[in-house]
């Protein structure tokens, strides 16, 4: 493909340390084990003060603007949020409110979430997938959900979650590579 995949992870957790952030890290590491990547991890817990009160993009801090540009130029997004009141966190959504409406068209997005129990697993299908559908992003077919019992000392300990991460990356990479080639060729032909 000529250059490493630009992979951007976004953790919607409001806390550090965070099970959600750890799950996103595990997925990024699995992608990096399969193909050459340049990865960046964006943590809402650290960025929140730079955009929480902003109503327009020009009001966000320079650090947040840099994060938004990374999101908009990614070859692959790995996004995760803890379940909070049956949805993703408000600051996670608020960050994506500043992303250009058409800047994620065709961008592959691997969805992940964490929650207190298995009942929250549908956040991927009922909350995250529609959000990225709005952007016309390519939400990848397999998401990764982990509950509190799948972690110990903030690390993933569940063999089932580890297997799901491998399966999600296995099934996603061919789609990611194809989508990246298409997006790069469209970029070249428009200039």
Spatial extent as radius of gyration: 16 Å
- Average pLDDT figure: 93
Main sheet characteristics: 6 strands, parallel
CA-CA gap between termini: 19 Å
Oligomer: single chain
Helix content: 40-55%
Q: Number of helical segments?
A: 6
Strand content: 15-25%
Structural class: alpha/beta
* Spans where pLDDT lies below 50 across 5 or more residues: none
Number of strands: 8
> Could you state the order of secondary-structure elements as H and E?
EHEHHEHEHEEEEH
Overall 3D shape: globular
Task: Summarize the entry for a quick read.
It is built from six helices and eight strands; from the N terminus they run βαβααβαβαββββα.
How does this structure look, described?
With 191 residues, this protein is of the alpha/beta class. The chain is built from 6 helices and 8 strands; from the N terminus they run βαβααβαβαββββα. The chain has helices spanning 19-34, 44-47, 62-72, 90-97, 123-134, 159-190, and strands spanning 5-11, 37-43, 76-82, 108-115, 138-139, 144-147, 151-152, 155-156. The strands form 2 sheets. Strands 1, 2, 3, 4, 5 and 6 form a 6-stranded parallel beta sheet that branches. Helix 1 links the parallel strand 1 (5-11) and strand 2 (37-43). Helix 1 crosses helix 6. It is globular and about 40 Å long. The protein starts with a strand and ends with a helix. The mean pLDDT is 93.
């Amino acid at each position: 493909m000529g250059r490493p995949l630009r992979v951007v992870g976004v953790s919607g957790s409001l806390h550090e340390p965070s099970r959600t952030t750890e799950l996103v890290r595990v997925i990024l590491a699995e992608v990096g084990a399969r193909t050459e990547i340049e990865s960046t991890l964006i943590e809402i817990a650290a960025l929140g003060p730079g955009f929480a009160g902003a109503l327009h993009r020009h009001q966000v801090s320079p650090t947040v603007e840099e994060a938004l540009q990374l999101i908009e130029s990614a070859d692959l997004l790995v996004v995760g949020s803890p379940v909070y009141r049956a949805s993703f966190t408000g600051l996670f959504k608020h960050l994506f409110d500043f992303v250009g409406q058409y800047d994620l068209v065709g961008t592959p997005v691997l969805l992940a979430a964490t929650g207190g129990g298995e009942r929250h697993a549908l956040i991927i299908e009922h909350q995250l997938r529609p959000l990225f559908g709005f952007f016309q992003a390519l939400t990848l077919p397999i998401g990764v959900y982990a509950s509190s019992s799948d972690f110990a000392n903030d690390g993933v300990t569940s063999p089932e979650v580890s297997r799901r991460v491998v399966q999600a990356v296995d099934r996603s990479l061919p789609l990611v590579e194809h989508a990246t080639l298409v997006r790069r060729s469209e970029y070249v032909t428009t200039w």
